[in-house]
Amino acid sequence: MMLVLFSLFLLTVFFAWRGLRETSLILFAFTFVFAVVIFIHHINTPLSLQL
Amino acid sequence: MKRIFNIITLERVLNLFELCGVYLVLICAFAFQLLLNELPCPLCLLQRLGFLCIAFGVLMNLRFGLRPSHYAICLLSALFTSFVALRQIALHVVPGTGAYGSAIFGMHFYTWSFIISILIVVATTLMLSIDRQYQKTKIKINMTHTTKILFFILFAIVILNMISIFFECGLGVCPDNPTHY
């Protein structure tokens, strides 16, 4: 999951480096939403499993 | 025209400072991981991604010119990082629950992460509030050597983190309390 997330971010930076602003912004939106989903999933996990 | 140019230069320098600060945080986290064998937990990785996203927003400013949308990326990412850090603080705030990782100057990484991300929110808000930087000028934004170097540093940090994640978590979900690669 994390590997996919970081790969998506790497692709986002790559498009920005190549000068494709809109494409990188769209990819950033996907990356950000994915990160938020992972975070919410983590919040939803019972505390006893995390400590 | 000259005044606008000066403000743009000032803003670009401030962006550069912010970016260097974020790089320092990320490099320190990675150095601690390698030297003290402190493996990052899933929340730590999410905080790292948050800092990387802040760096991305600043780099967009340096690459494509100063725009409110780029500052918005920084703000959203800093808020996300602060929420994740706050979550981790909340996990360890109860007495007897212990802490994750070592402390620097009496505070743990996640506490520093929260403080730094809130400072970034304040700094970015102040930086984006100067209206004159958005006025249209005939200055063409080219990718300077400095921007290229900053992009390569970001690439290096992301790729190193990806290698570390691969050895720690593989292709699946990362363990909540990792102890070995």
Describe this structure in words.
The complex is a heterodimer of chains A (51) and B (181). With 51 residues, chain A is mainly α. Helix content of chain A is 78%, strand content 0%. Chain A contains two helices and no strands. Chain A has helices at residues 2-17, 21-44. In chain A, helix 1 (2-17) packs antiparallel against helix 2 (21-44). The mean pLDDT of chain A is 88. Helix content of chain B is 70%, strand content 2%. Chain B has a two-stranded antiparallel sheet. In chain B, a hairpin with a 2-residue loop joins strand 1 (103-104) and strand 2 (107-108). At the A-B interface, helix 1 and helix 2 of A face helix 2, helix 3 and helix 5 of B.
How are the elements arranged and paired?
The complex is a heterodimer of chains A (51) and B (181).
Chain A: H1 2-17, H2 21-44
Chain B: H1 2-35, H2 42-64, H3 68-92, E1 103-104, E2 107-108, H4 109-128, H5 145-169
Antiparallel strand pairs in B: 1-2
Spans of chain A of 5+ residues with little confidence (pLDDT < 50)?
none
Strand order of the largest sheet of chain B: 1-2
Helix content of chain B: over 70%
The tally of helices of chain B reads 5
Q: Nearest-angstrom radius of gyration of chain A?
A: 14 Å
